[in-house]
């Protein structure tokens, strides 16, 4: 009897040992798209082993994003029950290609188990299949719970019956969805802010199933040639007349090209479906939708008829009448004049309208404010410029006028908005009247005095004094300085090229100082901004062009005509590109770049200003 029991136990333990194993089911699914999740599973049968993601020799192109554990008991033909533990490791391929997890080993219970190699393929042509049933099976937990109470067969039967009542259905998203771009035009200009809509359509087959759309987040794909501010508001669900795709979600944004040439623009959206199993349990399923590419021709702004005051504004704008906070003034009393520009376009590139030159008014740099009417995109609204003006002479009848220049992409022409002056009354101040009276007294002729011999003697004594001649030399130098200043002032008024060069020289020093300060503070935004201005002013000194109108292309052309090297031209282009990219919001340079760039910037600007 004892021998029989021993034989039975030996057979039992032998069967248990034979049931022990560690294996892998490889990847599921074996083909996915870049950025989608694939599960790598390891199955442990009647064996305990501590397995983590570090044990699996995955290639670097597969990004680990989490793991899970499932356990269950299985009985086949009333044989010994086997406890299974399924470890799932989730991976996302970061690029297209075929990646292999090489064969590896794991030790457990004094034995070594060999796991065969497995491969995962990432391809843009991989099907996106969404199931109406959850990838997570809640009945497996129920089966394990019931087996702990001695019910080893009941859960399997229950699960089989309930699965029959909840049939699965699989959708191919390539057939059941559609993505389109609604762009304003096929030809746009570099720097132009263009409104754009992206729509994602879903078939009635998906809408009538038990999966629900929980999230849909679109983004631009080829961002090297375009800057997109993102999608600041959620998409709106719109009913369509298309029987195949009755509902679409429309997202709005603004796109700005930063390069000239022929490009293709494309958007994609990452989303999440929530699917229910049996109406109670649910899980999330990730998916990606990609729109068709749309060709866009990005043109350079025409140089012909470009106004001297053009600063890069592109769009359709209107100017409101200028407003003055106080129309009755005294000489030396400041006032504030507001000029507002409204419309649609790239408001971030709009500079203050230029005031007409006047020696009777002292002008200070205006303060700027913007009222956005485009939901945060800065594409539509009103930009206000507040100028502080101080009258320097009495009896003035009006303030200076102003001119705002911009490029209209519809008419494909440069246009100007002329802002009329505001009527004003300027009275003399007390101090001004006093100074005027003193000036009048100084203009009165000196009284004639008859000289006596004693007076002549004293005069000869003065002539012999060295202090007298020093005073005469100082007076002559002062007169010469006044004459030269007057000549320069007349030249500034008569020669606009000379005036632009003189202004550019003074502004160049300020911009270089600001760029140097930004470099020392490791502030790349300010460095590129002031660096681009410094280059514009140094190029203005070298060419006589208006500094604010010099673009990247103009800079290369001027430097090429002056014989500058290709390296110098590339450096200038880098500064202009950095400033534009920061202004459009698509580029964040490293802080340590500025320290290495300033010395080269200063050298180039000094060489240009000496041409």
Provide keyphrases for this structure:
611 residues; alpha+beta; Immunoglobulin-like; 4 domains; six-stranded antiparallel beta sheet; five-stranded antiparallel beta sheet; 13 helices; 31% helix; elongated; BatD family protein; membrane; transmembrane; BatD
Q: Let me know the average pLDDT.
A: 78
Structural class: alpha+beta
Global outline: elongated
- Our Rg estimate from Cα atoms comes to 40 Å
Largest sheet: 6 strands, antiparallel
Quaternary structure state of the chains depicted: single chain
Q: What CATH architecture label of the largest domain applies?
A: Sandwich
Task: Describe the fold and architecture.
Helices cover 31% and strands 34% of the residues. Helix 10 (524-543) runs parallel beside helix 13 and helix 11 (552-561) packs antiparallel against helix 12 (566-584). Strand 4 and strand 5 (82-93) form a beta hairpin. The chain has 13 helices and 33 strands. The strands form ten sheets. Strands 23, 24, 26, 28, 29 and 30 form a six-stranded antiparallel sheet that branches. It has four domains: 20-126, Immunoglobulin-like (Sandwich); 171-299, Immunoglobulins (Immunoglobulin-like); 315-427, Sandwich (Immunoglobulin-like); 496-609, Four Helix Bundle (Hemerythrin (Met), subunit A). It is an alpha+beta fold and 611 residues long. This is BatD family protein. The chain crosses the membrane at residues 467-484.
């Amino acid at each position: 009897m004892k021998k029989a029991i021993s034989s039975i136990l030996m057979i039992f333990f032998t069967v248990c040992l034979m049931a022990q194993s560690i294996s892998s089911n490889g990847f599921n699914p074996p083909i996915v798209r870049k950025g989608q999740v694939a599960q790598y599973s390891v199955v442990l049968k009647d064996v305990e082993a501590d397995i983590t993601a570090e044990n699996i020799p995955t290639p670097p192109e597969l990004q680990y994003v989490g793991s899970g554990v499932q356990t269950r008991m299985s009985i086949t033909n009333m044989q010994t029950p086997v406890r299974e533990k399924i470890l799932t490791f989730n991976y996302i391929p970061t690029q297209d290609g075929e990646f292999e997890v090489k064969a590896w080993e794991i030790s457990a219970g004094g034995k070594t188990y060999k796991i065969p190699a497995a491969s995962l393929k990432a391809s843009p042509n991989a099907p996106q299949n969404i199931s109406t049933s959850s990838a997570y099976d809640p009945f497996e937990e129920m089966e394990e719970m019931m087996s702990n109470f001695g019910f080893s067969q009941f859960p399997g039967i229950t699960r089989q019956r309930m699965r029959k009542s909840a049939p699965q259905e699989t959708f191919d998203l390539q057939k059941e969805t559609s993505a389109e771009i609604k762009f304003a035009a096929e030809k746009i200009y570099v720097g132009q802010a263009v409104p754009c809509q992206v729509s994602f359509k879903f078939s009635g087959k998906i809408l009538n199933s038990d999966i629900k759309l929980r999230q849909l987040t679109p983004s631009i794909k080829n961002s090297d040639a375009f800057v997109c501010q993102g999608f600041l508001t959620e998409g709106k669900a719109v009913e369509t007349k298309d029987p195949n795709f009755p509902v679409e979600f429309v997202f709005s944004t603004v796109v700005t090209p930063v390069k000239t040439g022929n490009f293709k623009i494309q958007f994609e959206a990452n989303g999440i479906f929530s699917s229910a199993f049996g109406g109670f349990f649910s899980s999330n399923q990730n998916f990606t939708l990609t729109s068709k590419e749309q060709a866009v021709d990005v043109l350079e702004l025409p140089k012909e008829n470009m106004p001297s005051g053009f600063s890069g504004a592109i769009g359709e704008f209107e100017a409101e009448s200028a407003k003055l906070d106080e129309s009755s003034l005294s000489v030396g009393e400041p006032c504030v004049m507001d000029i507002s520009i409204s419309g649609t376009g790239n408001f971030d590139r709009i500079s203050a309208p230029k005031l007409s030159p006047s020696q009777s008014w002292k002008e200070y740099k205006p303060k700027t404010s913007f009222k956005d009417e485009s939901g945060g995109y800065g594409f539509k609204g009103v930009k206000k410029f507040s100028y502080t003006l101080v009258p320097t002479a009495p009896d003035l009848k009006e303030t200076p006028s102003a001119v705002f220049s911009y490029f209209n992409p519809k008419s494909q022409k440069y246009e100007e908005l002329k802002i009329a002056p505001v009527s004003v009354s300027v009275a003399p101040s007390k101090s001004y009247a006093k100074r005027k009276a003193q000036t009048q007294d100084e203009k009165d002729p000196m009284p004639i005095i008859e000289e006596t011999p004693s007076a002549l003697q004293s005069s000869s004594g003065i002539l012999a004094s060295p202090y007298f001649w020093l005073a005469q030399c100082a007076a002559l130098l002062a007169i010469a300085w006044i004459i030269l200043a007057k000549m320069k002032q007349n030249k500034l008024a008569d020669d606009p090229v000379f005036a632009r060069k003189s202004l550019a020289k003074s502004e160049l020093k300020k911009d270089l100082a600001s760029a140097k300060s930004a470099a020392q503070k490791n502030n790349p935004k300010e460095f590129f901004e002031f660096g681009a201005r410094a280059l514009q002013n140094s190029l203005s000194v070298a060419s006589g062009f208006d500094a604010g109108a010099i673009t990247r292309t103009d800079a290369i052309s001027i430097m090429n005509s002056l014989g500058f090297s290709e390296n110098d031209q590339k450096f200038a282009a880098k500064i202009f590109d950095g400033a534009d990219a920061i202004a459009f919001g698509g580029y964040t340079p490293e802080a340590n770049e500025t320290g290495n760039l300033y010395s080269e910037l200063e050298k180039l600007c000094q060489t240009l200003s000496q041409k």
